[in-house]
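Hi everyone,

Forwarding the result from last night's run.
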Amino acid sequence: MILFLDSDSICKRYLRDEDNIDETLLAMEAADVLAASILSYVEVRGVLARARRVRRIRSASSYARITAEFEVDWDGYFRIALSDEIIAEAGRLAERYFLRGVDAILLATALALSSKSFEPVEISTWDRNSGLVAAIQSEGLSLAHEVTA
């Protein structure tokens, strides 16, 4: 199984005070391949920097260790680049489901991966409020875990 992760799901590996960490880590361990949009790199680095700024990550040495761990892990991800086709599909999905731009890009990227994969693709997201989960399900993709409102 390929597990396609949004940036929030990726961050759960590094910010241990997050909700739903156990389900995310179990899904990651069960996957044959971890996949993400290339856009997630920037989002994760931004979340980690903010966590340092607001002292969720308390020390500079902890921040350095966590970002280094992320860099090593990121090299092992199957990363999907943004293409004109993915961006155009994201625009259609944003319009159809009233999604935020980043959520539409995530869904379009997961759909592109699913259409080219012989293995099942499951999505890990914890986004409860944007309509993303409903859009994922409407597009026929599977969630790796239950997302409750």
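DSSP finds seven helices and five strands in the chain.

Cheers,
N.
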